[in-house]
Amino acid sequence: MKAPSYLYGSIQEALSYGANAAMIYTGPPSNSIRKDPEMFQIEKSKQLMERSEFDVERLIIHAPYIINLANSIKPDIHDFGCTFLSQELKRAKAIGAKTLVLHPGSHVKAGMETGIEWIIKGLNQVLDSDDTNVKIALETMAGKGSECGYTFEQLASVFEGVNKKDRIGFCLDTCHVHDAGYNVHDVDGLLAEFDHILSLDRLLCIHINDSKNPKGSHKDRHANIGKGLIGFDALYRIVWHPALRSVTKILETPYIDGKAPYKEEIERLRIG
Question: Which of 181, 225, 227, 248 lies at 20 to 30 Å from 128 by C-alpha?
Answer without folding.
Answer: 248
